[in-house]
Amino acid sequence: MTAVLHLRDVVKHYGDTRALDRINLSLPSDAYISLLGPSGSGKTTLLRVIAGFERLEAGEISFQGSRIDTLPPHARGIGFVFQNFALFPHLSVEDNIAFGLKNSAINPVTDPGVVKRRVRDIIALVGLTGLEDRGVSQISGGQKQRVALARTLVTEPKMVLLDEPLGALDANLRMRMRSELRSIRERCGVTFLHVTGSETEALAMGDTVLVLDRNRIAQHGDADTIYNRPCSPAVARFLNCYNLLPGRISGEAFETAAGSLPLGGLRQSSENPVYAIRYDRVSIRPQDAAPGVDEAGVEATFIASEYTGAAINSFFTLADGSVFEVEQHLSHAAPSSYEPQTAYRLAWNREDALVYS
Amino acid sequence: MTMPHLAEDTAPVAVALPRARAGNLWLVAPGVLWMVLFLVLPIAMMVYVSFWTQTTFKIEPTLTLQSWITFFSSDTYLGALWTTIRIWLIVLATTLLVGYPAALFVGLFVKNKTLQTVLLVLCVIPFWTSFLIRVLAWRPMLGKEGAINLILMKLGIVSQPIEVLLFSELSVIIGMTQIYCVFMVGPIAFMLGRIDPSIIEAAQDLGAGFWRIFRTIILPLSMPGVVVGAIFVSVMVLGEFATSAALSGRKVNLLGNIIVTQVGSLKWAFAAVAGVILTILMGAVVAVLLRVVDLRKEL
């Protein structure tokens, strides 16, 4: 895999707030890349800077070997799919898709036959056949999504940027469009950079996942690495599947407000020491159960549980009042019921923990 | 567990959509009564009176076509009809020419909503003075020894004052353009302000240059505003008489001026003929403009 897009020390401010803080990035060609970040982390800004809608203040962007940061959006060869689709409301599906071919300032396609053929091909590719003459207000959300994608793909960009493309769809459709987007990308062979605030979406879709935190790239890797070995407490927090216990290292143990935990598992460096344990690695025991070999554990009070279908999420409070979440997959065992306001012992293998110090 | 919830959720929705029942029609009764008494009946009356017999000092309800024949066989009156149409078309064009760029600036290029409102209010400020003062203020501006001629002569651009500036068709057009321009700016700026900025960015990203985007996206999306503005300006300009009376030195006679003079000399039947023709003209203009854009779909 060769890298197509390079960002070096890219900086962007809005007034006094720093939206992008020296971003360095290399993206491979012909891949699906997802960019995960909480709201306000600068992910939309990053996309808009790459697309050319925002000027960067420092640093440089090169694409396929040449600098593009001074070029206008349309000269960059990068397509953009907007979060709200931004379809032209007065044009039909077909005219929306043909817009870029007919109206491009650089090499517009003037032969109506060629326009017709290329539009027809792309309509077939995204699965919109039969809707050519509909107005864009007469089609469903998922179909609008496809029109927005087709409108960009028909101009044959080398890379497509998608700004929360599934955000405007309902949950059911979102799941189906995930695999749809991946297969459309594979058929076209272009790079997709997909921005999302949903950790499940980022992990499910990206061949490579980028995590953006406080306007910098916090981690860059495949989904498995990101999920199992988040490189900082912040990344672990976005993944929404880790209990994070702040504290400090003292000898062979990690001291937290809820008690002392034996060290183990992966140790990574971080400014603020944090002990992290995944929701689904924890087992719930009676309060007086003896700790097993190589186990760490805390005492906690059960509050409530939430049934999610395949799993049950139980919520506990620790001695310092913080919430501790435990996920039990129902395929492993029938759910047991717990008494609210009763103390239990939560235990896990010390090797499953991640320690940041 | 979810089923009873669903039933509860849908039940009030069905109740919340009452059909228009006969009892509810009373809600429109005051409005209908008002319009019948003060709009429909007077228009019917006007049409009726236009067929009455008019002698020099009195008018009798004996039906005749005489007033209509006089109107259509007189060069003065047909000339007034033609002048009305010509001035209307010119003012429509000038208000669009002056108003559209202004609306484009306010509605599209000013991103700050507060500044947008301030600029639109600035357009309306001239309306804080009375109509007559606004019209008459053009006289010291355009006159032979008015501000414009004075400045042009001081700068040595002209040696003789330009006389055509005041008491001519040009002065009427200048005055009307200034007065009615804001009615064009408002609706267009409103429509332009509603265009999602990402639509324009999408067009840029797809490679279109500014003029292409203007022609294929911005102009079509602002057409409802243009049509509404054109209806405002047309209805007001077609019924105008004060501006032409004050700025043309009675050289430009519009249908409105004919009505004013005829009513002044108690020629009610003849004034009614002019009134009916003006009403038909306005109705036709509005009908044609509404054909251009389906406002119900766009607004």
Largest sheet of chain B: 2 strands, antiparallel
Mean pLDDT score of chain B, rounded? 87
Distance between the termini of chain B: 42 Å
Query: Mind telling me the C-alpha Rg of chain A?
Result: 24 Å
Listing every helix as H and every strand as E from the N terminus to the C terminus, the arrangement of chain A reads EEEHEEEHHHEHEHEEHHEEEEEEEEEEE
Instruction: Give the total of beta strands of chain A.
Output: 21
Give the tally of structural domains of chain B: 1
Shape of chain A: elongated
Pfam families (chain A): ABC_tran, TOBE_2
GO molecular function, one term (chain A): ATP hydrolysis activity
Domain ABC transporter (chain A): 5-239
GO biological process, one term (chain A): quaternary ammonium group transport
Molecular structure report:
The complex is a heterodimer of chains A (357) and B (299). Chain A has 357 residues and is an alpha+beta fold. Chain A contains eight helices and 21 strands. In chain A, strands 6-7-8-3-9-10 form a six-stranded mixed β-sheet, sandwiched between helices. A six-stranded mixed β-sheet of chain A has the order 13-12-11-15-21-14. In chain A, helix 2 (93-103) packs across helix 3 and helix 2 (93-103) runs parallel beside helix 4. The radius of gyration of chain A is 24 Å and the shape is elongated. The mean pLDDT of chain A is 88. With 299 residues, chain B is mostly helical. Chain B has one domain (67-298): Orthogonal Bundle (MetI-like fold), CATH 1.10.3720. In chain B, strands 1-2 form a two-stranded antiparallel ribbon. In chain B, a hairpin with a 4-residue loop joins strand 1 and strand 2 (59-60). Chain B is globular. The two termini of chain B are 42 Å apart. The A-B interface holds A 51-53, 72-74, 78-80, 82-84, 86-90, 99-100, 103-106, 108, 151-152, 155 and B 196, 198-199, 201-209, 212-213, 216-217, 220-221. Chain A: Residues 5-239 form the ABC transporter domain.
